Amino acid sequence: MTEALKDMFNKQFFDRFTKDLKLVINDFNTRKFVSQIMDDEWENREFKQRCWHITTVLKDFLPADYKAAIAKILELLDHIKDRHDYSEVNDEAFTLALEYGWILDNFVEQYGIDDYETSIKAIEKITQFTSCEFSVRPFIIKYPKKMMKQMLVWSKYKHWGVRRLSSEGCRPRLPWSMALPNLKEDPTPIIPILENLKDDISRFVRLSVANNLNDIAKDNPETVINLVKKWQGKSENIDWIIKHGCRTLLKQGNAEAMELFGFDGAKNITIKDFKIVTPKVKIGEALEFGFKLMNNSAKAVKIRLEYGLYYQKANKTLSKKVCRISEKEYAKNSTTHITRKHSFKVVTTRVLHTGLHQVSVIINGKEFEKYDFELI
């Protein structure tokens, strides 16, 4: 069984963490620290609740003054950096950063909002060790103009982690975090940051730019479409960014996005002999279906081939999820046999409900007929 994320805070973690805390906190009491964390509610807490709780306990072991407490945290980072190279990404450094990062990032978020200068300097240093994409967001909300100017400065910082933060931290819809309503409504302050980062040497920074574009596209598709028109063809890296950043628009079948990436409708493309091999699918098994895709044109056609899966919801309505099959050229006057399986294994990200479901084929954003099957 896969270990739950919250279980990363285990005995091995606390052995490492407390040993490092002893380096910067005089007379640190390991037993007292761990016993306060492992209280009666520990087992019932989920991942983010555990992060919050550990940070709350940690505060009592640090100086009461916020500036002094942050100084201890930064001193702790210096000790860790002496043992690991954080100039580039590597597995050992990443694991430690992931474990410690949730706590150090949380500390600034919980206790630093009223001390802007101290917190911003701390974020700049901490994010070179982990990522402060969560802690920076309350600052963007409280100090919007001031903070976005700082993010723009960070977009030219020498360390890739700080540059990545300048994009990732201002994503309007960052998962696992609070949304940024002002930037959802008007993403204009984000665009100069993305302009600076669109051809960054770090793939982690470029991925963040793409994800930021995808967030923006959900509320302001025209903004992203305009950037695609401006950036397309500038470099291989930028072309990858805009394609990945338009993934939601492409799944939605946005006609302008489809055209920009060479998917010019479904003219002369037909679907024939669609068949559901498994009209009744047991939970834990897979839907299997197949069809013939016919290009009746006298020239090869570039096709984004997808299928729509309509899931039964608790209220008996259907909810659509678009899944990609392929993106490629289909030869002129060709017939291609397509088969596909879709798993209905139980996962934590979706609750399965038995009853009517549907599946459809989508070609370059055009959806064809829906076909029924039953989940049992």
Count of discrete alpha- or pi-helical segments spanning 4 or more residues? 16
N-to-C order of helices and strands? HHHHHHHHHHHHHHHHEEEEEEEE
How does the helix and strand content classify structurally? Answer: alpha+beta
Strand content: 15-25%
Overall geometry comes to: globular
Distance between the termini: 25 Å
Largest sheet: 5 strands, mixed
Find the count of extended strands (DSSP E, 2+ residues): 8
> Which runs of at least 5 residues are low in confidence (pLDDT < 50)?
none
Keywords:
alpha+beta; 376 residues; five-stranded mixed β-sheet; 16 helices; globular
Kindly describe this structure.
The structure is a single chain. The chain is of the alpha+beta class. A five-stranded mixed beta sheet has the order 2-8-7-4-5, with no helix packed on it. Strands 1-3-6 form a three-stranded antiparallel beta sheet, with no helix packed on it. Strand 4 and strand 5 form a beta hairpin. Helix 5 packs antiparallel against helix 6 and helix 9 runs parallel beside helix 12. The two termini are 25 Å apart. The relative contact order is 0.06.
